[in-house]
Structure formats: C-alpha cells, structure tokens
Amino acid sequence: MILAHRIQLDPTAKQRIYFAKAAGTARLVWNWSLAEWNEQYAAGGKPKASELKRYFNSAKYDLYPWLSEIHRDAHAQPFANLQTAFNNFFAGRARRPTFKKKGKSRDSFYCACDKLSVDDDRVRLPVVGSVRMTEALRFDGKIQSAVVSRDADRWFISIQVEMPDPKPAKPSGESIGIDLGLTTFAALSNGEKIEAPKPLAASIKRLRRLSRRHSRKVKGSNNRRKAAMKLARHHRRVRNIRQDFLHQTSTRLSKNHAAVCVEDLNVSGMVKNRCLSRAISDASWSEFRRLLDYKCPLYGSTLTVRARFFASSKTCSDCGHKVDSLPLSVREWVCPSCGSLHDRDTNAGKNLLSGTVPSARRELTPVEIAALTLGNQRETAVGDTGTTTVRTHVRSHRR
User: Fold this and answer.
1) Is 311 part of any domain?
2) DSSP notation for 74-123
3) What residues make up the domain containing 252?
4) Cα gap 17→135, rounded to integer Å
5) Is 92 left (phi over 0), alpha (psi -120 to 50) or beta?
C-alpha cells in the first residue's frame, strides 16, 4: 500500500525563490511538450512522451540555458504526467490536456525518491538543501517520491510512502448504511444524522466581495496581486474546513463499524443541475467516497457499494413496498402497505445496509389498520402522490 502525507513547509526566502523557479520550469516544460504533441498529432503522427523527452533533453540547455539552475526532476516529470493525461483522455476518464498559465494553474514540481531524505521534522531536497517541515512524517516505510506544491502563500510537500498491506482486526461496531444528502450530509441506518459544515455556503458573501475587489484592480499591479492572494487564502480556508470534516467523518465511520454500505452516486451528472450543483459541490460526495475507499481497508472494515439505480428512498425498509414517486420535497412518508412512518434519508440508509428488498409482507392488525386510516385522513390535506400518502416539511426561507 502506498500512502501520501501532505505536510506544510517552512522555507527560507531563498528556498521560496527556488520553489517558484522550479514550479515555473515544470509549467514551461509541460506547455512545450503539449505543443509538440498537438503539432505531431495534427500532422497525422502518433506522438509519445518518451520521444518528446529524448528530443527535449538533447537541446534543452541550448534553448533554455537557465535550466542548469533547476534540478532535472522538475523538467523530467512533466513528460510522464503528459503521457498519463493523454492516456486518461483517450480512455474517456478525463478531458483533453490543456496549457498551463501562471497564476491559473497549480504551482508544483516533482522530486524522485533518491534525491530526498527525511530526518524527523526536516526534509532534504536537491539544490536547496534542508527544509523545515511543520510536523514529522507519520508513516514508516520506503519513500517513493515527493511533490512540492504551493497553495496561496504556503508551500507543501506530499511524500508518498510504500507500506506493507495492513492486516487490522475487524471493528466490533455494527454495520451501517450511509445515505448522502443535502439537507443532512449523511443519514445512517441506525438513525444518526451527520450535519455538514457547508463552508462554501457560509463564506459565499465574503468570497464574492473579495472576487469583486480583485476584478476591479488594475491588471499587473501590486494591488491586484495582493487582492488575488487574499482571495486564494480564503478559498484555502473553505477547502480546509471541508477536508477536515470529511477526514474526521470518514475515519470515525470506517474505524468504528464492521461494514459500511454506500450508494454509487452519479455525481458528475448530478452537478449539471444548476439548482443543486453548488450544494452538491460543497458537500463533496465524491471526495467522501474516495476517502472511504482507502480508509475502510486500512482500519479493517468492509466497504460495499450498492447499484446506482437501487431504489433506496422509495422502498419501505419494513415490508419492501416500493412507491411510484417520491419528490425531493418529501422528507417523511407513510407506507401504504404496512403503515410504517419513514424518514426519507434514514429509510434509504436501512435499505442500503440490507442490500436486498425484503419480500415478506406481514398482515396488518385491526389497530394498525385503524391508525393507518386515521393517518391517511390527516395527511391527505398535506399531500398525496396517488400511490402513497406523504408528509412534507414546509421550510421557511429568509429573503
């Protein structure tokens, strides 16, 4: 197993200058190789990153003499990254690679395993020497590689470590089903509901204000650069709040439950809904699923992914009856078959945990039939889908 630990660096002023130069070198080599690739492809050729790298190495110091100041790993790895990007593009897993622009793309550069060493809270990098880290490396194992990147005004290093496959004991906690949503981030099959911090929704006004201030500054001025840095720092704060919540939640669930069942959501398709796209992106369902993918085996729990079209919300978790329609505005509903009152999200979590819809239906007692009839009479005034009686929550909105 390979795990990566991302640690903040505390470089000196001279080291910061080198980091910026190395990141700019990686960006320049990427753009050069992408331009050559597009030119050869347009001419009917079949370009390869290895051939582009060989040609670039034969003439790089003639074209760019200042490359001798930057370690070779910074201008060698972009070719491998470009090959991977085009492989993903041709396989339909990603978009076509595009050119990188200073100030728009992420500043980063690569360092191979034989060029770096870690000693407690310091990492030794080529050219710049020892750089202080804000914390020590947590993982014990063979270091594979490292990537130094900039986030706003801070520099980070992501160190990949190869570790033996873990063989942890299975957690003793109960198995749970997780239904992801927007009203609550996650509804568990045991009735627990996890609220999301929604950092983007809480900071959207300030982000808009900082964005307006940045756009009004003169392009190329120092004031525009300062405004851009303030905006970037606030975006980083929003992202850190979200990541902290996702890490803590995913760790707690995978560490304390023997099995975790989730639904295979089509997030890329759901974000195309212009009414829900911002809320879905703020919840970050895909990142939560990615964290569960590697944390469940790490802590010994089992992750089960249910089919995408499994009707978890519309199926009664008690008797298995499936209603024809259940709009998103309906948060509670009464099963017309057995009379059970269901919370929409908790019921979905129970169905995701069971995996199979129960087929056995019990006969209703006279008391339950009378209660169901009385409930139907009360609920009909609220809403009726024609196939089942539903209860909706009326939410007030501040304008």
Assistant:
1) no
2) GGTHHHHHHHHHHHHHHTTSSPPP----TTTSPPEEEEEGGG-EEETTEE
3) 176-306
4) 22
5) left
Q: What letter does residue 191 receive in the DSSP assignment?
A: S
Of residues 168, 321, 342, the one with CA closest to residue 256: 168
**Does one domain contain both 127 and 232?**
no
- Dihedral angle sign, alpha carbons of residues 367, 371, 376, 377: positive
Query: Are 7 and 151 in a shared domain?
Result: yes
Catalytic positions, written as ranges: 179, 263, 345
75 and 132 inside one domain: yes
Q: What is the pLDDT of residue 49?
A: 93
pTM: 0.81
Report the alpha-carbon distance of residue 201 to residue 198 in Å, rounded. 6
Residue 171 within any structural domain of the chain: no
Question: How many Å is the Cα radius of gyration of the chain?
Answer: 27
Query: What is the distance between the alpha carbons of residues 360 and 338, in angstroms, rounded to a whole number?
Result: 11
State yes or no: pLDDT of 205 exceeds 60: yes
Q: Is residue 260 part of a domain?
A: yes
Amino acid in the structure at residue 23: A
Last residue of a domain, one of 162, 186, 204: 162
Task: Read off the DSSP letter of residue 13.
Answer: H
pLDDT of 82 = 96
Q: How many domains does the chain have?
A: 3
Query: Domain check: are 286 and 356 in the same one?
Result: no
Give the pLDDT of residue 373: 44
Domain end position, chosen among 273, 306, 339: 306
Asked if residue 253 and residue 381 are part of one domain, the reply reads: no
| Residue 168 located in a structural domain | no
Alpha-carbon torsion angle 384, 390, 394, 395, nearest 10: -130
The mean pLDDT of the chain is 86
Under 8 Å CB-to-CB from 15, ≥6 apart: which residues? 128, 131
β strands within the chain, DSSP E: 2-10, 108-112, 117-119, 122-125, 129-133, 142-151, 154-162, 176-180, 186-188, 193-194, 259-263, 302-306, 330-334, 341-343, 389-392
Tell me, what's the pLDDT at 77? 94
How far from each other are the two terminal CA atoms of the chain, in whole angstroms? 51
Q: Which residues contact 119 (CB under 8 A, 6 or more apart)?
A: none
Clarify whether residues 68 and 141 are in a common domain. yes
CA distances from 232 to 17, 103, 104, 150, 209 (A): 19, 11, 11, 11, 13
- Would you tell me the crossing angle of helices 49-63 and 77-90 to the nearest 10 degrees? 150
